[in-house]
Known about the structure:
Blueprint: H1 12-23, H2 27-39, E1 42-45, E2 61-64, E3 69-72, H3 78-96, H4 98-104, H5 110-135
Parallel strand pairs: 1-3
Antiparallel strand pairs: 2-3
Amino acid sequence: MHEPYDSYNLSPAQAERQLLAEVGKTALGRALLDYLKQQGVEIVVTEDVPPVLGAGIVAGGGYMPSEKKLYLDPRGGADRLLHFFAHETRHVAQIETEMQRNFSAAAFEPHGHLFAVRLMEMDADAFAVYFVYNHA
């Protein structure tokens, strides 16, 4: 069992250091960090997560493919930060691999696009729950 850390009162830089240390404690966490590095994705912990989905939605994190940046909001506690790290890393895998290309044809039809986005979100959330549950 890993010691929890309190990210409520940490600066973004402190939260990032502690997140990376915590993620690095497990084989799966190290594999995710390695994957992000291979993809050239930078982790940015900031209270100013840019809006995602082109709809102005601000969440606890976001992956911006055009910037190759994975944004995470440090507010809300360690488990939330771990969850969004895994959730957004899964989006990197979705977007940078075949999954996104398979869904791209669905973007031409409103119902198909909505279905594809919901599937991506469900997949990312399921992975994040698995990661946080198995991380402890």
